[in-house]
Amino acid sequence: MAAVESLAVAPDRDPEPAPLLAVRDLVKVYPGPRRGLFGPRRELTAVAGVSFELAAGETLAIVGESGCGKSTVGNLVLNLIEPTSGRVAFDGEDLSATGADRWRALRGDMQLIFQDSRSALDPRLSIGDQVREGLDIHGLGAPAERRAEAEAMLEAVGLPGFADRYPHALSGGQQQRAVIARALAVGPRLVVCDEPVAALDVSIQAQVVNLLTDLQARLGLSYLFISHDLSLVRHVSDRIAVMYLGAFVEVGSRRQIFDEPRHPYTRALIGAVPVARARREPRGRPVRLSGEVPSPLDPPPGCSLHPRCPFATGRCRAERPLPRRQADGRSIACHHPEAAA
Amino acid sequence: MNLRYAAIKILRAVLTLWLVVTFVFVVLRVTGDPTEQLLPDDIDPLIRDYYRTAWGLDRPLWEQYLKYFQSAFHGDFGISFRNRLPAAEVIWQRIPKTLELGLATFAAALAMGIPLGVFAALNRDRWLDRLTMSFAVFGFSMPNFFLGILLILLFALHLRILPSSGYGTAAHMVMPVITLATAFAGSIARFTRSAMLEVLARDYLRTAEAAGAGLGRRVWRHALPNAAIPIVTIVGFSLGGMIGGAVVTENVFAWPGVGRLLTSAVADRDLSVVQGIVVLVAVTMVAANLAVDLAYGWLDPRVRVGARERTR
After folding, report:
1. Are residues B141 and B24 in the same domain?
2. Is B170 in the same domain as B299?
3. Fewer CB under 10 Å: which end of chain A, C or N?
4. pLDDT score, position B183
């Protein structure tokens, strides 16, 4: 088992500098409902051993169906949920043993943008006060200048003169811009975007996404971009991790995932995207999966995809495939990646 | 919008009061001729007729109602049979004592209930939460008279550190206030907990945590202000329960307030005093509810800012 190379940190083979974010074997298990009244508690494995790296200035998208655990990964990275096991390293600093005080200081470097901007803003505080709050918390700039700084940040996201307004007076797109201004005001290096535009109209989505990519280019941000929307992910990401039932099944560059998907689940997912004007057909036949996603309370043994996968063999039913790095740099967790291709 | 909201609420409060005052009149007339209840059975019919005329009971019902309503509006509920003073005056003398008890109870209940509820919500589903909530349930399920008697047994009879009953020093207030505030604090704690849990699950609190806001800032700046509306509601509505509890508690501790006056007036069939107290309680309740409604306008920025932005 140790001989199997995971897609995680491999410093001896990677001559590049340390990545901004390195996550290794992250696991989150929740206590589930009891079996019967006094029976043992079942366990719900939301994240089952996830490893990845994120370089400075890079965007890694995590895609998957709802409930696959992608949002949990984002929350684990930011330590908003305590991991059951595994490590997170930020800028070379191992965060698994970090105390509360250090974490509070680190939060200036790592920010979060939520899906539902209506609920992400405090209804009782003005937009300006909320953008300013991060500056107050982290003691950035002179107190007298923070107000002006918050207004400048609001202007940068296209909300000039909005500082005195309250969230309910803003449209959905404006609220999400305010959320972005609040996250970026403290000058983070990593931003976890958890379905940042899913609650917006499609016409507004493009504006907000373009704002995010503009700000990334200007400020050199790294994004961990969590989304179920593949066409959106195609637009923003450098690399993509495909997640199924708590684990990454395939991680590769945007081109690899969209043009040459190899894992059966990735192929099914990519094949399901309606393409308005296909520039190039994805190579290989699209895969059709049968049945529904199993409950994470009762995951199938072996490969979690095997009950639905047309290529499943006896080995798939018995042994869980670990992510393996391929010759082209991507990694796939499948016993028979060639069968699918 | 804001003014209309207030106007509607005030109109509704006035309407409620009118209904209560009318209801008191109807009940008193339906239960029979007051002269038959107040005068001996074997009295001379001439004397009975004299009193009927003197009290205006020979007039048509609508005239009686108008006259009653007019005097009730001026706070005149007639003469107390017991001590020959205007009923309003008799009640008025007792109000400060009940108010004293009520305000102390209110302050004590808020000071206990809100921190307990916040504490329980922050420790959700842990044993500290369960323990706190068990106390809260115990608090408001314990009948006032029983808790009061237990306290007397413990502090007055057994430990001999507090006077068992009566009015006068601050020591006299301790047990009645504990008795009344326990139930009140229990319900405030429960509602604070559930309001806090709802707010704590909101994304803006997770965002505040992700932004590096400490626990104190998250609770005081973000969670409590947003949880305030349901808490204010329950505090306002519980005032009614507190008035009912005051009647019992004042009797247990021989506290010379309105509650004790009510029980003695009922026992003495002192109708004008009972009438006056019923109207007083109704006014208190309606005023508390009106205050809650108007507080929404102040607590909810959607109402507050709506008005401010229009004037720009």
Report:
1. no
2. yes
3. N
4. 86
Mutate to test the interface with A, among B204, B222, B311 (most CBs of A within 10 A): B204
| B118 and B18 within one domain | no
Domain of B122, CATH number, reads 1.10.3720.10
Give B135 to chain A, closest Cα distance, Å. 26
What domains can you pick out in chain A, each with its CATH number? 21-109+189-195+220-340 (3.40.50.300)
- pLDDT score for A280: 54
pLDDT (tens digit per residue) in B149-202: 898 889 888 888 888 888 888 888 889 999 889 988 998 999 999 999 999 888
Mean pLDDT for the stretch of residues A107-125: 85
Q: How far apart are CA A253 and CA A262, in angstroms?
A: 12
Residues B57 and B134 in one domain: no
Taking CB atoms and an 8 Å cut-off, how many pairs form between chains A and B?
Answer: 69
Query: Would residue B89 count as lying in a domain?
Result: no
* B16 found inside a domain: yes
- For the whole model, what pTM was predicted? 0.75
Between chains, do B305 and A133 touch, taking CB under 8 Å as contact? no
Collect all residues of chain A within an 8 Å Cβ-Cβ radius of residue B209: 80
Mean pLDDT for B255-279 is 85
User: Which of chain A's residues have a Cβ under 8 Å away from the Cβ of B210?
Assistant: 78, 80, 107, 110-112
In a domain, B79, yes or no: no
- The pLDDT of B232-238, averaged and rounded, is 81
* H or E element, residue A185: helix A172-185
The rounded distance, in Å, linking the Cα atoms of B94 and A45 is 65
The answer for B 191-250 residues in CB contact with A (under 8 A) is: 202-204, 206-214, 217, 221-222, 225-226
Q: Which of A111, A121, A166 sits opposite B305 (nearest CB)?
A: A166
- What is the pLDDT of chain B when averaged over all its residues? 83
At A172-205, the pLDDT tens digits run 889 999 999 999 999 999 999 998 888 888 888 8
Nearest to residue B288, comparing CAs of B8, B97, B16? B16
- The contact set of A with B (CB < 8 A) is 78, 80, 103-108, 110-112, 114-116, 119-125, 133-134, 137-138, 166, 168-169, 179, 182-183, 186
Residue B199 structural domain: 94-311
Provide CB contacts within 8 A for B266, sequence distance 6+.
B274
Structure tokens at B216: 């104190």
Same domain assignment for residues B101 and B210: yes
Question: CA distances (Å), B104 to each of B69, B71, B176, B237, B260, in order?
Answer: 34, 33, 10, 18, 18
Residue of B nearest to A105 (CA): B212
DSSP sequence for B215-282? HHHIIIIIIHHHHHHHHHHHHHHHHHHHHHHHHHHHHHTT--SHHHHHHHHHHTT-HHHHHHHHHHHH
- Answer yes or no: is pLDDT of A17 > 90: no
pLDDT digits (tens, 9 = 90+) for A55-83: 999 999 999 988 888 999 999 999 888 89
Rounded to the nearest 10 degrees, what angle do helices A127-138 and A143-156 cross at? 130
Same domain for B26 and B161, yes or no, is no
**How big is the CA angle at A70 (ends A156 and A301), to the nearest 5 degrees?**
170
> Do B297 and B233 belong to one domain?
yes
pLDDT value at residue A1:
41
Interchain proximity A122–B226, CB inside 8 Å? yes
Contacts of B310 in chain A (CB under 8 A): none
Pair (B62, B124) in one structural domain: no
> How far is the C-alpha of A96 from the C-alpha of A86, rounded, in Å?
8
> Could B202 and A119 be called an inter-chain contact, meaning their C-beta atoms sit closer than 8 Å?
yes
Based on the structure, what is the number of domains in chain B? 2
